């Protein structure tokens, strides 16, 4: 996994979406959630990526956060 992280950092430094996708792929759901949330806070217009965060929140059973993100997604 370290090699994949270094590769992402090389081709897209500070891309929380790519890093979140890698964390999700590896089963690191909390880390994926953190990366997706950081990405969306830095790129609020990237609403097409919000479903990835919503999926993780659902899997972590964080219902209030999931509901909030769903509302934000449907406002766009």
Polypeptide structure, described:
- The chain is 75% helix and 0% strand.
- The chain has 76 residues and is mostly helical.
- It is flat.
Number of self-contained structural domains: 1
Instruction: Determine Rg (CA atoms, Å).
Output: 12 Å
What would you call the shape?
flat
Q: Give a count of the beta strands, DSSP E runs of length 2 or more.
A: 0
N-to-C span:
34 Å
Q: What would CATH call the architecture? A: Alpha Horseshoe
- Total number of helical segments? 5
CATH class: Mainly Alpha
Helicity, as a percent range: over 70%
Short description:
With 76 residues, the chain is mainly alpha-helical. The chain is built from five helices and no strands. The chain has one domain (2-75): Serine Threonine Protein Phosphatase 5, Tetratricopeptide repeat.
Task: Tell me the layout of helices and strands.
Layout (H helix, E strand, L loop, with lengths): L1 H10 L4 H10 L3 H14 L7 H10 L3 H13 L1
Comma- or semicolon-separated keywords:
76 residues, mainly alpha, flat, 0% strand
């Amino acid at each position: 996994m370290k090699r994949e992280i270094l590769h992402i950092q090389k081709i897209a430094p500070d891309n929380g979406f790519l890093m979140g996708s890698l964390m999700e792929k590896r089963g690191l759901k909390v880390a994926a959630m953190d990366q997706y949330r950081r990405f969306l806070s830095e790129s609020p217009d990237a609403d097409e990526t919000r479903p990835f965060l919503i999926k993780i929140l659902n899997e972590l059973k964080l219902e209030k956060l999931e509901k909030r993100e769903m509302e934000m997604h449907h406002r766009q």
